[in-house]
Design brief:
mainly alpha, 11 helices, 75% helix, globular
Length: 281
């Protein structure tokens, strides 16, 4: 349990160190000169130093090797890059379709962008665009790097995904118990790709792209990706099965099969990871 406890504490500390300065800068930008997104370039510079420190910057620091190993930003071969991105992309697409179907079966909590009438659209767009890569870097370093890595090596991938998914949910302050499977599923997509490549790099790209889609979707249409409309969908228990439900179901099966096929190709592209896992067991 010391392995889990230490991994969770370090991972949450890394997440806090990456997100708190961003949030404080954006909040300050909201109150001081909101017409100009001056907080965005400062956040970019901070994340650059954040990346360098976690990746072992500092020649004489005794924690250099430990930070670099925990960060897990290892290089990835070209085939592994291709199949990990395809696996993640199809997985995320299947995930969004599954959420749309879930929204027809149960009542999911609504998500909406807070009304900020004093913030110009250019400033808001700048924040949303910057938040996507920041979240990708910070959260993958925290949850798939420093947290998942030690748990995965000691207890296996499934346990690591369940724990990181749970704390991934807790770190998002809008978490409600009904959304726990949502965060665990996200952790499964990013965590599996990270495990197969032994690197957070593909997961960072996938996470940033998914967040960019989610942020823009929320900004443009006023609802979360799991909602088919700005308001909650009518449950099938009241409306019955309709063509949209059938089409989403078939689409989910097709995209899910594509994700499974891409994952099998990723396994073939990363055979050394399977051998390393067998040796650790």
């Amino acid at each position: 349990m010391r392995v889990i406890g230490r991994a969770v504490v370090i991972g949450m500390a890394v997440a806090l160190a990456g997100t708190l300065p961003r949030d404080l800068l954006f909040k300050a930008n909201l109150h001081y000169w909101p017409a100009f997104p001056w907080g965005t370039p400062i956040v970019a510079v901070y994340i650059w130093f954040f990346w360098r420190y976690l990746n072992g910057a500092g020649e004489s620091d005794s924690t250099k090797a430990e930070r670099r190993a925990g960060f897990r930003a290892n290089s990835v071969s070209r085939p592994a890059w291709v199949w990990s991105l395809l696996t993640g992309a199809f997985g995320i697409a299947a995930f969004v379709l599954a959420l749309r179907l879930a929204n027809r079966l149960i009542v999911l909590p609504p998500q909406s962008l807070h009304d900020l009438p004093q913030v110009p659209e250019s400033t808001m767009l700048s924040w949303l665009l910057m938040s996507a890569p920041v979240a990708g870097i910070v959260e993958e370093a925290a949850f798939r790097g420093y947290m998942q890595g030690p748990i995965e090596r000691r207890y296996g991938l499934v346990v690591a995904i369940l724990i990181t998914g749970t704390f991934f949910a807790i770190a998002h302050l809008d978490f409600t118990p009904i959304l726990w499977p949502y965060y665990v599923a996200v952790a499964a997509i990013y965590g599996t790709v990270t495990y197969r490549t032994n690197s957070i790099m593909p997961a960072i790209v996938l996470h940033a792209a998914a967040n960019l889609y989610s942020n823009l979707d929320l900004w443009l249409y006023g609802h979360a990706e799991w909602q088919a409309a700005a308001g909650p969908s009518v449950l099938i228990w009241k409306s019955g099965v309709d063509p949209s439900l059938v089409s989403w179901s078939f689409a989910l099966v097709g995209v899910g099969a594509a994700a499974a096929g891409a994952y099998l190709m990723l396994v073939r592209a990363t055979p050394e990871q399977g051998r390393a896992f067998a040796r650790s067991v």
